[in-house]
Putative esterase/lipase
Amino acid sequence: MSEPTPLQTREQYSAAYDNSAAVPNAQSLLHDLLGRSQAAYAQHDCTRNIPYGPGPRQVFDWFAPAPPVRAAGAANAAPILAFLHGGYWQWRSKDDFACIATGPLAAGFHVVLGEYTLAPQVRMPDIVAEVGLLLDALQSHPGLGQPQGQPPRIVLAGHSAGGHLAAMHRAHPAVAAVLAISGLFELAPIARGALNDALQLSEDEIAECSPQRRIRPGRITEVAVGAAELPELQRQSRAYAAALQAAGEPAQFHALSGRNHFDILHELERPEGSLSALARALAKHAGLGAAG
């Protein structure tokens, strides 16, 4: 594979991260995603907009496992898949991605969809801190909390900007494992294109909030990206997984054949999908009771 042309101009950096322009049917895929998410709320047992902080977007949705799982007495020990949505930290909502709950629910997970305040209302360190507050709240929440003396239960997953936020919390005590999907792990290129108009990242914020620059002991991490995604997205995931491995951290890289930045989520939504399988494997590695 030849090396990509180095990025130089603002326009080049903007295009290198423009997922919607790179996928010809992006709007159709997103429209279908919204429809499937509305159906997921109707089909599954879900408590919506549970506060974890005082802000209007500091809320989460909780999908509980099916009644047979709870009746078997397994719900209190069941793993939790906490999902953080994408949208380059400035767009989208957890409600848009509820369909991803289907795959993990079929394996006996609780599923949490976390929300957070968007830029430009807050800055990047504030968004990162909000996810920490969410994890703190889950750790003590009735039915989801971590009993004293018990291991952490959360497989923390995120897509795109959510993959970045998940990676920033690899070492949180509530987290058992991380599944970073199509994530952003070095923010310097983001600051050089149009995405930074809302983010207004400073050099200090780039250093503080780039997971690639903050490799430290944390939980096992699976880094996945679509093999049909933009070269920069693939490069970011590959480089982050390599940096984790070079630091001796448990991590693997996965390029999902044929998947782009949007339809990659089918692999989490489908019980038989490759990302669903990774979530189950992470739960098993952490000693949690997900179904096979």
